[in-house]
TetR/AcrR family transcriptional regulator
Amino acid sequence: MTAIEQTQAARPRGTRLPRRARRNQLLGAAQEVFVAQGYHSAAMDDIAERAGVSKPVLYQHFPGKLELYLALLDQHCEALLQGVRTALASTTDNKLRVAATMDAYFAYIEDEGGAFRLVFESDLTNEPAVRERVERVSLQCAEAISDVIAGDTGLSKEESMLLAVGLGGVSQVVARYWLASGSRIPRDTAVQLLTSLAWRGIAGFPLHGADLPIEQH
């Protein structure tokens, strides 16, 4: 039984949900439908039925399917960005920080709701509003990583950003492969392997204002 079904079963018939709770319920139902069917195959009727509401109730909160998809995309892009920022701030040990950041991507992609598919595998990337959001969150994550690299190494903004884009891109591509291949390697082991690969490269850059490599931090 999904979280939506559990909520519906626990709520007495005829009970009106507060607006925010109803919106969250509708977003949860929409996520299940969009992840399972893709944007183009999903219908507002399917989402309303999944949420256990009438279609007019759904339209009270979202004027159309695209607006509903964008609201869901905004929610999950923010979740990814916050996960990366939290990982970067979790320690001052650079190797552990690389591991934490990569694990943030794995955790995001492993989430059972499959929301990462809306961000990284959307069938609506030809829609400018969707493409802009996906590109923006990738850029924001890279900027967060770049700030740490620049602060530790003294590399230029452009050089730090290039490395950050590489680290973020590798993390999400490998995590998606790991999930698609059946997660046969435990997540901790997969993160450790990827961290070792990335660390051998990033650790070679000297600390800002020092001759020691970054791994001596």
Observations:
- The domain at 70-204 is CATH 1.10.357.10 (Tetracycline Repressor; domain 2).
